[in-house]
Amino acid sequence: MQDTVKTAKKPKLGFWDIWNMSFGFLGIQIGLVLQLSNSSRIFQGMGAEVENLAILTIAAPVTGLVVQPIIGYFSDRTWSPRWGRRRPYFFVGAILASIGLILMPNASSLYLAVGTLWLLDTAFNVSMEPFRAFVGDKLPAKQRTFGYAMQSFFIGLGSVGAAFLPTILEKMGVSNSAGENGVPDTVKYAFYIGAVLLVAAVSWTVFRSKEYPPSEEELAEAKSAMNPIKEIGQALISMPQTMVRLAFVQFFSWFALFAMWIYTTPAITLHVFGTDDSTSDLYNQGANFVNDNIGYYNFVAFAVAFLLPVLANLTSRKITHQICLLLGAAGFLLIFFAPAKLSMLLAMVGVGFCWSSILSMPYAILVGSLPENKLGFYVGVFNFFIVIPQIVAASIFGFLLTEFFDKDPLYAFLVGGISFILAAVAVFFVPDRDDPNFTAEN
Question: What is the pTM of this model?
Answer without folding.
Answer: 0.71
